Automatic annotation (TrEMBL):
SMART domains per UniProt: TGc
Official protein name in the record: Hemocyte protein-glutamine gamma-glutamyltransferase-like isoform X1
Feature: compositional bias, Polar residues: 99-108, 119-130, 142-160
Similarity section: Belongs to the transglutaminase superfamily. Transglutaminase family.
Native species: Crassostrea virginica
Gene: LOC111135863
Length: 913
């Protein structure tokens, strides 16, 4: 037995957004500002971000600020001219602040750093979420373009252990991140208007994060753990407004202004103004409302805000304006909230297009941050534990970032439509045309990046994408699907990951997979025919929504697929396609319904070249495609790895039983949509020999020998001669044949009314150095009856069983911020040493996937290691571990850990590995 003890160090990813935000003086980017007299010292922190927009701040010569001695000093803030808005990444924009000939002040290196200037002896600000407005006429320019170099806060963090990127940064501008304007007032400094002096001014806003998040099912988001606010549209949330005096709606006109995007406009739904009302009045369903609910002590009022159920899903910023009108000009005392307000889709709201009728299942389809993706083949279904991590640090921001990129930073009503948003997600997750998140690779050569089988979750991939601003290497269909689930659940769209076994890739849209055999009885692809294939398995996603662009009744589950296969409207995107439309063969309905229909319901057609080079159909199999379509059982729980039933077979949701009348009618209906004729078979051929193939599937593990056989029966009255070729090849899961393991040829006479069998044994030594990371083989035979010309093709996929990674948790009682031990073990089944070994660990609280190189594993030995982990949040957690080596890949396991809360505050802490 090999035994190791090690503690994985956590990747030194920057602290999550919103941590340490609750400070008396602080800007929207998490930088501490300390003031002493007339000096403002910036303490740089992980949230420093560079903008390429010049500062445009101007003070009048009469403006003054008081130094520590109480005397006024002239303030001269010089505008820095800018002749162009360069899209290149610029680290600093200088600001020249000249206080006096005898006084100097360190200047900020960030253009939007708030300036906290107290001009009134009575003005104070103890609020942790915003700065008190004072009568200074300073208007900070809002960013109209933010270069893509300025991603979410953690994008400037220290690199972790993730590898691989491709391409260069985007040239286009991208507006994303934490918008902020300091509090101000549109008021003349010298105006002593009695009306304005009697107006109540906002001095603080409490976002009531804990209360709101609990009511909106958002308490798990790291943004909320750090004191931020995440709510769902169509549902009210509360704000506690604190005034400098008693507030009265009769004497004050209060307006709440919500903005999102770089250039907010009312006509695009990105600039919203709603007046505070004493009660909710009859309004349009698409209108925002703000209602005064109650009064609180110390001049506070509770305000209830309801964004409509079709508002844009985005990061919003809020300004509260107390409007003053007199005979000269209207003015507004403004107070800007520091924290952004994230507004998401709401599947709990009946008015939202993503409303899901069974709220219990939302514990899985929205709130479960871990799961499993099924793989392998229809005869032996494997499973890959996957950590979606939609609540982890920076993932909500990254998800919004991806959607914004998909819309090319064009903020507007399209970002409120789940049909449009889900289609954009299917496009932006792949790299092919839009420099998206992940680069696909099915070649088997994964140099320059990370092997697809070694990824355990979406978090590390999304963080690397945002940090580097470049697509991540490498991915395959199950990883694309895992990332889509993460993004959709983060945004509030119910989503599940789907695996389809024996999945067709129909490239010409004729709902047939055509297999060609030449005169030498070898499978070929004619030069004038497209290359089509049957994947062992293929993964995509289903998202739940109402489809207002389709006839009534075609809402519900919709298929989207981010794996780049075929183009749709000029991009590698697929869906959303109605699941009901697919089952019924309604392939004329949007989007890409015909392509998905063929994936689950195409016919397998075998063609053979005969005399004179003419191709003729040998066989048509209507049952070969679309088997055991699977997803995780919607129990809302992590995968325990203990053998519990976790696979939900949903094949009957996609198709009627194969070869049934209703299934054939659906195929005919789909064919009529494209004017496709049914394949024709010559029924006059003599076929008096029956064949049957068989593979020994008695759980053959990696390292064992196996046998496959082919039996035949002559039911005729004459002797027949069978010429056959048996072949075993390694195959990629996409159906592409890889390397020949073994082949044999036979010519056998068969007497009338008799039977026989041909067998081929495959030794471990035949395949050990030829297998790929899926350990999958295709065994096939082409047999011809020489006397009649009867031709039979048979093939089957066969997968060896890999060892499991066992994970044992040392204690049944695990608490937040307290270390606990995990023991990992698996047995090397081979008579060979495993070299180039590594372990990948993922789970809640691990900031990026953790990779650890380990020592070689001797032949036929058990490898054991101990790992120390420290959780930072409570609840049921799934730990996922994957082992990789030169001979065995993707040895995976998972464990379910119940973490209880402790007396320690855990919002700002990380696990210590």
């Amino acid at each position: 037995m090999m035994y190791e003890t090690w503690s994985p160090r956590r990747n030194r990813i920057a602290p999550p957004p919103y941590n340490n935000h609750r400070m008396t003086h602080g800007d929207r980017f998490g930088n501490n500002l300390t003031s002493t007299g007339n000096e403002f010292n910036r303490v740089p922190s992980f949230r420093n971000r560079a903008f390429n927009i010049p500062v445009n701040i101007e003070r009048t010569p009469t403006a003054s600020t008081r130094n520590s001695a109480g005397t006024s000093l002239p303030v001269n803030i010089e505008r820095i001219p800018s002749t162009s808005r360069n899209r290149s990444f610029q680290p600093f924009v200088p600001v020249n602040i000249d206080r006096s000939p005898t006084a100097s002040t360190p200047y900020s290196t960030e253009p939007f750093a708030p300036v906290n200037i107290d001009r009134s002896p009575t003005a104070t600000s103890n609020n942790r979420t915003a700065e008190m407005s004072v009568p200074v006429n300073i208007e900070r320019p809002l960013s109209s373009n933010i270069s893509r170099g300025s991603g979410p806060a953690y994008s400037n963090s220290t690199p972790g252990l993730m590898n691989g990127s491709i391409g260069g940064p985007r040239e286009r501008s991208v507006s994303f991140g934490r918008y902020r304007r300091s509090a101000d007032e549109d008021e003349d400094d010298n105006d002593e208007d009695d009306v304005s002096s009697n107006r109540a001014k906002v001095s603080a806003i409490d976002i009531l994060s804990e209360e709101n998040s609990r009511q909106h099912h958002t308490e798990k988001y790291d943004v909320v753990q750090g004191g931020g606010l995440v709510v769902r549209r169509g549902q009210a949330f509360n704000l506690l407004l604190q005034f400098d005096r008693r507030f009265s709606l009769k004497k004050n006109t209060l307006r709440l202004v919500f903005k999102t995007g770089p250039n907010p406009k009312p006509g695009k739904g990105t600039h919203i103004q709603c007046l505070l009302q004493s009660e909710r009045r009859s309004t349009s369903p698409s209108e925002w409302t703000a209602v005064l609910r109650s009064r609180h002590k110390e001049n506070g009022v509770l305000v209830s805000v309801t964004p409509p159920a079709d508002c844009i899903v985005a990061e919003w910023r809020l300004t509260v304006e107390n409007i003053v009108s007199n005979s000269t000009k209207p003015r507004a005392f403004k107070f800007t909230l520091k924290e952004s307000i994230f507004i998401l889709f709401n599947p709990w709201c009946r008015e939202d297009d993503v409303y899901f009728p069974d709220s219990n299942k939302l514990n899985e389809y929205v709130l479960n941050d871990s799961g499993v993706i099924f793989n392998g083949d229809a005869n032996y279904i494997g499973q890959k534990p996957w950590f979606y991590g939609q609540f982890e640090s920076g993932i909500l921001e990254a998800s919004l970032f991806c959607v914004q990129l998909g819309f090319d930073s064009q903020f507007g009503y399209a970002m409120s439509n789940p049909t449009r948003v889900s289609r954009i997600i299917s496009k932006i997750v792949n790299f092919n045309q839009d420099n998206g998140v992940l680069v696909g690779n099915w070649s088997g050569d994964y140099s320059g990046g990370k092997s697809p089988s070694s990824w355990n979750g979406s978090v590390a991939i999304l963080r690397q994408f945002v940090k580097t601003q470049r697509p991540v290497k490498w991915g395959q269909c199950f990883i694309f699907a895992g990332i889509v689930t993460t993004i959709c659940r983060a945004l509030g769209i119910p989503c599940r990951t789907i695996s389809n076994f024996s999945s067709a890739h129909d490239t010409d849209g004729n709902i047939k997979i055509d297999i060609y055999v030449d005169s030498n009885r070898r499978e070929v692809v004619p030069s004038n025919q497209p290359s089509e294939s049957i994947w062992n398995f293929h993964c995509w996603n289903e998202v739940w929504m109402e489809r207002r662009d389709l006839p009534s009744g075609y809402g519900g589950w919709q298929i989207i697929d981010a794996t780049p296969q075929e183009e749709s409207s000029g991009f590698n995107q697929c869906g959303p396609a109605s699941l009901r439309a697919i089952k019924e063969g309604r392939c004329e309905l949007l989007y890409d319904t015909l392509f998905v229909f063929a994936e689950v319901n195409a016919d397998k057609v075998v063609w053979a070249r005969g005399e004179g080079g003419k191709w003729s159909i040998v066989s048509v199999d209507p049952s070969a495609i679309g088997k055991k379509i699977s997803t995780k059982v919607p129990d809302g729980l992590p995968v325990t790895g203990g053998g519990a039933r976790i696979r939900d077979d949903i094949t009957d949701e996609y198709k009627f039983p194969d070869a049934s009348v209703r299934e054939r009618l659906a195929v005919k209906k789909a064919s009529r949509a494209r004017d496709i004729s049914a394949p024709y078979i010559n029924e006059n051929k003599v076929e008096d020999v029956r064949f049957h193939g068989f593979v020994d599937r008695n759980y053959v593990t990696l390292g064992q020998d196996f046998v496959f056989s082919f039996s035949f029966t002559n039911s005729g009255t004459e002797t027949r001669t069978i010429s056959a070729k048996m072949l075993c090849e390694t195959v990629l899961y996409t159906g592409v044949r890889d390397r020949i393991v073994k082949q044999q040829s036979y010519q056998v006479p068969v007497s009338p009314k008799s039977n026989g069998e041909m067998t081929m044994e495959i030794l471990a030594s035949d395949y050990l150095h030829k297998i790929n990371d899926n350990a999958t083989f295709k065994v096939s035979m082409v047999a011809e009856v020489l006397e009649t010309g009867q031709l039979v093709m048979w093939d089957d996929d066969f997968r060896l069983i890999k060892p499991n990674m066992e994970i044992e948790v040392s204690s049944s009682s695990v608490e937040v911020n307290k270390p606990f031990q995990c023991r990992l073990r698996f047995k090397n089944p081979l008579n060979a040493i495993l070299r180039n070994c590594s372990i990948s660990v993922d789970g809640p609280g691990i900031d990026g996937e953790f990779d650890q190189r380990i020592s070689d594993v001797a032949a036929r030995t058990e490898w054991v290691a101990e790992m120390t982990m420290t959780p930072r949040t409570a609840g049921r957690k799934q730990i996922t571990v994957t082992f990789n080596s030169d001979l065995i890949d993707n040895v995976s396991g998972s464990a379910d850990v119940l973490v209880s809360s402790s007396s320690h505050k855990h919002g700002h802490l990380f696990p210590c590995f």
